[in-house]
Amino acid sequence: MQVRHRAAELIETGASVAVVATGADWQAQRLIDDGFPFPCLVDPDARLYEAMGITRLTWRSVFNLRNWRNYLRARRAARHDGIGQGEVTGDWKRLSGVLVVDGAGVVRFIHRARALGDYPPVSELIDTVVRLDERATRRTGWEERER
């Protein structure tokens, strides 16, 4: 998904961004120490994942070529960025998900992965946040104006 590379654009939207993973707390700390620009949270019991309806790889899908291609692509990208994959912790069969929640706590966008490395483009997330902001501005009639 390359959130790190598009961090400035995400921050510019005014969105609050956080990353949640089922791994270990030391891995989240390592991301932060390596300069990841957003908070990294750990959900070892996968409660958020379950609440979002995010599933796990089935044994059949573990052997799916698409999953291995995605995994290898992610490893290459991480290595290119100077980020080691590191030890696998948490639920290695847990798929990923991405959601956008508005200021009222309503989920406005959700993507549930169907394979390893199945992420929406960051541009789609940025567009969603911008549209939410535009709707809120129209609904309230408030716009920031120069004086």
Give a brief description.
The protein is an alpha+beta fold and 147 residues long.
**What is the CATH topology descriptor?**
Glutaredoxin
For the largest beta sheet, what order do the strands appear in spatially?
1-2
**Distance separating the two termini:** 39 Å
Taken from the alpha-carbon principal axes, the silhouette is globular
Structural class: alpha+beta
By oligomeric state, this entry counts as single chain
Number of domains: 1
Count of individual beta strands: 4
Please identify the top-level CATH class: Alpha Beta
Give an account of the 3D structure.
The protein has 147 residues and is α+β, with helices and mostly antiparallel strands. It has one domain: Glutaredoxin (3-Layer(aba) Sandwich), CATH 3.40.30. The chain has six helices and four strands. The strands form two sheets. The chain has a two-stranded parallel ribbon with strand order 1-2. Helix 2 (25-33) links the parallel strand 1 (19-21) and strand 2 (40-42). Residues 142-147 have low confidence and may be disordered.
Characteristic terms for this protein:
alpha+beta; single chain; about 150 residues; about 10% strand; Glutaredoxin; two-stranded parallel ribbon
Give the topology, please.
Elements lengths: L6 H6 L6 E3 L3 H9 L6 E3 L4 H6 L6 H4 L2 H16 L16 E5 L5 E6 L9 H19 L7
Parallel strand pairs: 1-2
Antiparallel strand pairs: 3-4
